[in-house]
Structures are given as C-alpha cells and as structure tokens.
Amino acid sequence: MLSGMIRALALAFYLLQAEASESATCTDTQKKGTSCSHQPYQKKQVADTDACCALCAADDECKQWTFHSDINKNCRLTNNAEPEKEKEGATCGIKSPAPTPPTPPTPPSPPGPATTWAVLIAGSSGYGNYRHQADVCHAYQILKKRSIPADQIIVLAVDDIAHSSQNPFPGKIFNKPTKKGEPGVDVYAGCNIDYRGNDVTPTTFVNVLTGVQDGPTNGNKVLKSDSNSRVFVNFVDHGGVGLIGFPKTTMHVKQLSQALETMQQKKMFSELLFYLEACESGSMFPDLTSSGKIFAVTAANAKESSWGTYCPPQDMVDGKHLQSCLGDLFSVNWMEDTDLAKSGETISQQVQIVKQETAKKSHVTIFGDQSFENEPINNFEMKDDQVRLNVSEDIMHQGHVDVRDIPLYLAYDRWNTSRTEQEKAIAWKELQDIRHQRKTDDGLFVAITEKACEGLANWGCAEGLQKSKKELRDYDCHMTLTRVIENECPAHKQRNAGGWNAYSMQYSQWLVNMCEVRTALKQDVQALEAIVRAKCVSAVNAVQQDVFTI
Predict the structure, then answer these.
(1) Residues 395 and 428 placed together within one structural domain of the fold
(2) 136: which of 122, 149, 389, 394 fits an S-S bond (Cβ 3.0–4.6 Å)?
(3) Over the chain, what is the mean pLDDT?
C-alpha cells in the first residue's frame, strides 16, 4: 500500500512539473553540454529544462540554473554568475532580465509629521558617558515638540544614567547647565527608550534601520518608512577611523554602508538626514553618492577627535555639579540652534551655523546628496511654531574637552574636588588606574606597528605607521584587525569593546595604515592578523602581571 502511495505521489509530481513546463516558454539563454551552477542554493527534481527554467523564473534570488538530464533530472539554482564548464547531459540557463515595466508617475510626497521617522541612538554606557544619553534624549524632545508620533521615533540607549548612584538628580538628565535657582530642563522626562541594556547592539541598530523584525527587534519597533518618508538618524558615541562604538562591541564602516544601501534598495525614504557624533566620524560615509538622497553631517572629519562640552566646572545645574560632561559640542550646537526655532531655517543654514560654532575644536563635515539641503530643517526636526527649551541664554558653551581625554579629565576633577581624605584616596586610585590603562594601550599599539615592520631594512617604518593618516580603502583587512583588538585584547572595563575604548579608538588609524601599505610591509592580511593577535595575548598577560612591557 505504501509503495502504491509513493508511485501516486511521484506521478502527481511529474504531471505538475509537466504542466508547469507547458504553461510557459523559457526565454532564458540556454547552453547545452554546459554546467553553470556549481554552488547551488537550491536543488530540485523537475521534468525537463523548461521546468527548471520556470523554477528559476519564479525565484527572484535565482541568477543561473543547470538542468542535469542524466542525474535524476536534477535542477540546480544559483544566485551568482558562476563560470561555465563543459558537462555532458547538462544544460546551463542564464536568467533573462524581466521586462521593464512602464514607469508610473511619481506621487506627490504627503507633507507633515506622518511622513517623518527618526532613529536616535546613544551607543555608550557608564556615568562618564552621561553626555551621550543626554544628547539623545534632548533630540527626542525636539522631535516630540515637532509632533512626530512617538511610534515613529525609535530610541536606543542603555539607560543607566538617570538612575545611576552617581547622579545627583535621580531620575533626571540635563543637556545644558543652569545657574543656581534655575531648575534646568530634564530631557529624560518622557524620553521613550525602545531598546535598552544589552539590546543596544549593531545588530539591533541595523534591524531597526532596515525594518527587520528579528532577534531583539522581533515584535518591537523598527522603521516602517516608505519611499515618501523623510528619515532622520542621530548616532552619538565614541569612534575611530572606520569604527563607531557600542557597549562591549563596535560597528565597522562596512556594516553601516551595507545598512544604508539596504535602506535604499528597499525604498525606505525619499530623503535621509544623518547626524553622526563621534571621533573621526568623517570616515563613516565613504559610499554616499551625490544622488542617493542621503545627506550626512559628522562632528569631525576623518582625522580628528570630536569634543565634549559643558564639562566640569561648567557641569552645574541649579547649584549642583554633575561631575560629568553634559553634552557633546557638535550635538549641543545643532540642538540649541534648533531650540531657537528660527522661522524658515534650512538644513544648509543650520549646518553652516554648526560648522562655525564647532570649528575651533573640530571640523564638521558633510557627505552625500546635497540636493535637499535647502529644505527647511523643520521637515526633519521641529515645527516653527514650537517653543524652544527654556534654558539660560547667558550660559555660553564652555568646558570643552577632547573626547579622548574626558575619562582622565573627569577623574582628575573628582580628585581635585574631593572633600574628604577617603574620597581623595578613591579618586586618586581611579586617576592612576586610567593613566595605567592609557599607557597599556599606547604600548600595545606601538608593539603592533614595530612587529609589523620587523625585518624591513626601512628606518622609520614604525614611526611612519604611527604618524601617517592613510585613507581607509581596504575594508576587509581593517575589519579583520579591528575584530581581533575587540575580541582578544584586554578590556579595562567590563563595558569596553575588548581592547577598544574612548582613548584607544584613536589607534584604529594605525591599523588602517598597516592595511593600506601591507604590500610594502611584505605582509598579507593573515600575517597582520597574527601579529595583532600575538600582541593582544601579550597585552592580556602584561595586564594580569601588572607590568607595562608587551
């Protein structure tokens, strides 16, 4: 009985395949005696070449197919243009392009907040990074005042600042200082954080941007924008050449470029405005085009640090010092400009103002499609008729500190302002620990560059790797080396991305230099990877033994 059922199913399968092959004529280019699907993603038994052709035609992923008449009538589909090889009994099919449909008229873009989406992310953790979550919650308040629906604003932040034991204002966050007697504006109030804690990762960020509900985003908020939508993205954290930071990990420029390309392919925006606050943030948008409808503005160029602002002693709110920087200079500049609610101000005008306000410390840089820079900034940020945040006008930007030095600066401030001997002793130990960690980082990367140059009759090789500022082009090599630093070098704090931290991310440039001149170094990627890994292992041992030699 079972064998009869199997024969019946086989006959039904054959008839269905025959019906499919007769229903349409294959228009693909066919080459008999040739195989071109050596690494198929799908294999299936079909009746003949037409059935195999129809199977490929029904699958958008399929690029080529091969029908083997002498191997159980096997149809193999591949999604790549694979080389052709002679194969008796095989027929190779090259999928014909689908006929181009007539271009429909472009519908008018509906105005108003219903077409505006925003993604805001603070990629750091720890009270020393207070300013990042303050920046993001301030941005959230701006967007809410523009009447953008809360379900169209997506916020990623660890959310460990407002209720930190170090916060003198429990449950509150401030992005600007005020004089004694002025309560200041609590930007944390009503700041709706969608992804917090361990969910703040590059994977979550990419899923949110590309509208994918999987893993941490499964069933949660992601962008549901379309080709009529304006999208605003604001990322705030540490960075290095080709890197931006997350708690315990990093995101490479290659990953960010792929995410933006996916958004373009999925037609998820009519215009996208991206504000990126990080050191060397000008290295993160190498693939933007002049017609791709993405306009990016970065806090710094590809070769310099960004800056914190309202750092001690300008960290006071209503008479209390918060002992952390309240904001980042670029972010504070664009948001305080938006707070002024200037009627008719364009994106271009805001960028020029922010450039001027930030220029003494870093060079605000623009990338991509400038075709919509003359649109009103309130298309993305805020309506003209909204009231700005109520803060003191006479408090000018002060307390600027290079982001690389903020941990050391804050530790020194805590020691300098400690009131008791016990507090002073604790603060002094923290200060010395940070100095020790910086020395360890310095030694690690010096050792890496010296080893890369070992055996070369080229005096000054290591110094060249340390002082050059090559442009990042070899993304795969650089990504490989940065992952070794992240996964195998010592982490000074649990929240650090392995060997990467606010200070050490400056050395990402040295890895760029190694990758870009590896031919001259006579080292392939695997050899450079081995050098970095070996020095990371030595660094781990040195930290454990509390010595500086690597």
Answers:
(1) no
(2) 122
(3) 87
> What's the token pair of residue 130?
């207070």
Q: How many residues are given for the chain?
A: 550
- The catalytic residue among 238, 252, 478, 492 is 238
On whether residue 468 sits in a domain, the answer given is: yes
Angle at 487 between CA 486 and CA 491, to 5 degrees: 65
Q: Judge whether 478 counts as a catalytic residue.
A: no
Catalytic annotation on 279?
A: yes
- Using left for φ > 0, alpha for ψ between -120 and 50, and beta otherwise, residue 147 falls in left
CA 369 to chain centre: 19
Structural domain ending residue among the three candidates 354, 370, 403? 403
Residue 386 pLDDT > 70? no
Range of the domain at 59: 26-94
Residue 340: per-residue pLDDT? 84
Same domain flag for 458 and 489 = yes
Residue range 146-176, pLDDT digits in tens: 888 999 999 999 999 999 999 999 999 999 9
Amino acid at 23: S
Distance CA 242, CA 238 (A): 12
Catalytic residue among 52, 92, 279, 311: 279
Question: Has this prediction a pTM greater than 0.90?
Answer: no
